[in-house]
Amino acid sequence: MKAGERPKLARGLRQDSRRFRLLAIVVGFFVVSLTFVVVSKPDAILFSLNGKLPVEQAPTSILIRQKVKSPPATSGKTSTDALRGDPKVVDDEADVRPKGTKGEEEESRVLSEPDPTSGMTELTTNKDGGGHKSDEEKTLGGGGKQNGKGEERGHAAAEKHKVTLPTVSNYTIHDIDETENAKQDGTRNLQQGSKPLCDFSNFRANVCEMRGDVRVHPNGTSILFMEPANSQRNELWKIKPYPRKGDEFCLSHITELTVKSSKVAPECTKYHDVPAVIFSLTGYTGNLFHDFTDVMVPLFTTANEFNGEVQFLITDMALWWTIKYHTVLQKLSKYPVIDFSKDDQVHCFKHVIVGLHAYMEFTIDSSKAPHNYSMVDFNRFMRGAYSLGRDTVTVLGEYPKVKPRLLIIKRHRTRMFLNLDEIVAMAEELGFEVVIDEANVSSDISRFARLVNSVDVMMGVHGAGLTNCVFLPQNATLIQIVPWGGLEWVSHTDFGKPSELMGLRYKQYSISVDESSLTDQYPRDHEIFRNPISFHKRGFDFIRQTFMDKQNVKLDCKRFRPILLEALDNLNP
Description:
Structural class: alpha/beta
């Protein structure tokens, strides 16, 4: 090579090197830009592949603004202003009927038993005013009367997770760009199979359960189960997620949700990697008995299997209620609840339950409940949630200087003990340490739970206060005093059977005519004493006003004494 050609060659190589670097920079910039678009706006690239609809083509009832909002940071503190719009916490004898009623006593529904004659299938009224289902509402399998509530959930219970308190850092909601592993694009929903989306066969509660690609859109009050293009499923259900089926007055205050199979839906704005349970808090909540029979027990039955890895979405939110029972809610779910009425996102889940599994009053039917849960399990759960120290009663003589403890539930205004001092004296004579306290909705649940758990026997006149038996240790005794009026069956249904199913000892004492204050209002030969059952045909309101609101109790201590002796005997080894 000539000497003059070598510098020319070097200059040429440097120019080629600069061109190559420039090309590499351009290609690199293009790759980075493409990567950014794919990550931040995946639907813009994948629309033609995943079958999602853009907003302008989505059904008008569930249109949303196409923007992603991060969940607001939640605070553990609640201002008084935030509570002003919610129902006031009422005491044991205050009005708790849904909005729009007047002057009803707090326990007006404690006596109400489910109506076995209520319709087995909830119909949607068509335009002609009839009760027949439209073509869209007809379901596969003849209306969804299938009972396999527990079989498909078995694998979820096997996953054990550490329980942590709900914080923003472990929030179940993720922005779209953070959920590559949770995306449900192209889901074929094989897990659902031919099983109908909803089961309306239970006389107490309707429940819908879906596995696959499920879109929950609170603004549209809709839950959409996404179907592949070749699917023949065509289901539409209307459900009010509160377990008082057949109680039209109660359900008239509950938001109705639409559960529908669909091949089109709005874009997901939030993805979740845990199941969802959707339920309502309006109804008769605010009454201690209904807090448990309508929400607590059904919620435990439905959600306990997830071991905290479940997201609650609440329609008809009662903020004061979630604050009062936050200990239980945090035990069942690690994640802050979502207020259905104030949420504008489209939430995507792989498993959704709408409504709560419920059976008879204040009980769990272990033959039908998921994983055969029972009231013993619920009693254990409540003691654990409030970190109560006693799992079982103290055996007599185990601690010579320790007396068995008796809690007497005190009432005001109605069904009061008129000779409370005499009752206390008799119990102390028998060897009890007597504690007297009131139980109402405004009570500090944690404090009262510790008190109830510390006693061996609890007694009171039929009323919501007896619901606190859920905190009693195993083998403790519950004594229910039944007012005059033929109320034995309903008293046993509300508290007798549930307490026995919890593993407690139960004693029921029906007062005589001489122990009732009704003798001050009616002559002794009145029909109300000769045949009180005949008054039941006048309806529940008459029963409540006559035998509940206007009656107090003066116990015949000599007649009642054997009941306390039996309770003592239950404590013997």
